[in-house]
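Re: the 224-residue chain
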Amino acid sequence: MADGKTLKIIIAGEGGQGVQSIGELLAEAAFQGGKQALYIPNFGVEQRGGVSVAYVQIADGEIGAPKFLKADLLTVLSKRSAERTKGYIRPGTLYLYEESALKAPVIADRTVGIQGYETVAPEGFAKMVGDEAEKLAPPPADPSLRPVGIRAAATAKAELIPRVFNIIVLGAITKLIKVLPPAAVKEAIAKKFRAKFQENPELEALNFQAFAKGLTMIEAEGLQ
């Protein structure tokens, strides 16, 4: 992050995908690391299965305004969240997208994830990957867009548990933005979910494994 630059990040997905937890954890890690951080949630109008958007700014100095028009990093986790946030793309925007074929969630089971519920009721956590999935790809119109695809949902389902999907995404974002030490983000995870981890130590291990997988998924240069 260049001197005086404010890093502008958007994470967008479906309610129940843990978008807001990603935003909160980025801001907390930045704050604990001595940086200025601002996190603003937007949940949309639907109470179940609505699009959830988190706006995060990170800077070494003062952050000038709470809102911004264009993103340095735009992360999209579903097709309709990509459509909702495409206006924030500018030349050179880093575009992190979920390749695991996600649709708007279907309320399918009663698994409660640690990522928070945003706009979906706790008793109806949304299924992440299913038979009716559709491919999400980066918009092709802007040749200056810098797309980076990851398979976070498929990896969480196959190798860990679906509820840590968003922590994989958090790891990928941490690697891309290059302004937060991974150790600081892990500390933010431990702090936010301390009570849950005390109740279930296995859940702590799964989340740290998920974060590590997100870090290793990224091979792009990231933001400078």
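The first strand starts at residue 6 and ends at 14.
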